[in-house]
Specification:
Distance between the termini: 23 Å
Radius of gyration: 18 Å
Number of helices: 0
Order of helices and strands: EEEEEEEEEEEEEEEEEEEEEEEEEEE
């Protein structure tokens, strides 16, 4: 868990495989450590992290693998369930993956003998994103290149089906807006759906393509962010369906947008992996320039810690962590 000063990476964790996706658990699991999951070419690893920024007795960072789950195929996306608890007896780990065979897999484990998984079939093309219902965790929403957003129960039954006009790139479910789903499409449209009436209730426009990623701000439900083309864009949904603020950031094309979970003005974007490196930029809305620039060897995925201004990106046999200022 060495500190790496050469490329301003705060910490690295060595992994046994290329890391395609990495995800901090966004929910409180009842433990002082943070849960993190990462996916490789045929498995998912679940581990715990603790950082010196939150515990003075930790030198740098402590990482411990809890369990490796055989997946059998490349992992493309991971979502944590709010039902995951480390303080229960026995503990419960629950997460869902999207894989390159167009299936969702729901994993449930007590970290001992009980390890179950269910496969959800239905999407006819690549699944780009998925999310659990944030309060009870009894449903999962997913979006795909097949121009649909689908909502499933935990048995894999389809509970809702929204037809999109282009590939679905991101889906978000906000704990304070439990009956709404945000769906971002590649054609630059972000729509909000009412899950009770199953109707679209609001839409936002990028006015540029391709939209690759969007996120709903945890700390302020009125703020939406996205990357499209080489720009980041921010909306205040009470003011206009067009972005309030936008800025070009990545030379080639921007790939991911993620709001910090601790500050409504802090967010990160990544560029497409170039020949050798991918660029991570951390932005603060009060600053004209990025407040942190990081590079990682062919990185993928982007995730923020639940309580710290710290984000992680996966890479070649490594996870990279950056700590930033509030």
């Amino acid at each position: 868990m060495k500190q790496d000063s050469t490329r301003n990476i705060s910490y690295t964790v060595d992994c046994e495989d290329y890391v395609h996706v990495v995800k901090f658990n966004p929910f409180d699991s009842g433990d002082s450590c943070s849960l993190i999951a990462y996916g490789g070419n045929n498995y998912v690893v679940v581990g715990t992290c603790r950082f010196q920024e939150e515990d003075a007795e930790v030198e740098g960072m402590q990482y411990k693998t809890l369990r490796t789950f055989h997946h059998g195929i490349r992992v493309d996306a991971i979502a944590w369930s709010p039902e995951t608890r480390l303080d229960a007896i026995p503990p419960q780990i629950r997460f869902c993956t999207a894989a390159s065979d167009r299936k969702l897999r729901l994993f449930t484990s007590d970290l001992q003998d009980k390890n179950e998984f269910k496969t959800f079939d239905g999407h006819s093309d690549y699944i780009n994103d998925l999310v659990f219902a944030p309060n009870e965790g009894q449903e999962i929403a997913s979006v795909s290149d097949d121009h649909t957003c689908r909502v499933w129960d935990l048995e894999g039954n389809e509970k809702a089906h929204f037809v999109l006009r282009s590939p679905g790139m991101s889906v978000c479910w906000h704990p304070e807006e439990a009956f709404k789903l945000m769906v971002a499409e590649k054609n630059g449209t972000i729509r909000f759906y009412d899950l009770i009436t199953q109707q679209a209730i609001l839409s936002l426009e990028c006015e540029q393509i391709p939209l690759m990623s969007a996120d709903w701000c945890l700390k302020n439900t009125l703020k939406i962010g996205a990357v499209a083309g080489s720009d980041w864009l921010i909306w205040d949904i009470t003011r206009s369906s067009y972005p309030q603020d936008k800025r070009p950031v990545h030379v080639d094309r921007a790939r991911l947008f993620r709001w910090s979970r601790v500050n409504e003005n802090l967010f990160a974007t990544t560029g497409y992996p170039g020949k050798t490196t991918t660029q991570l930029l951390v932005h603060h809305l009060g600053h004209p320039q990025p407040i942190l620039t990081g590079t990682a060897a062919v990185g993928s995925g982007l995730t923020w810690h639940r309580t710290l201004p710290l984000c992680a990106v996966g890479g070649d046999h490594k996870i990279f962590f950056w700590v930033t200022e509030m």
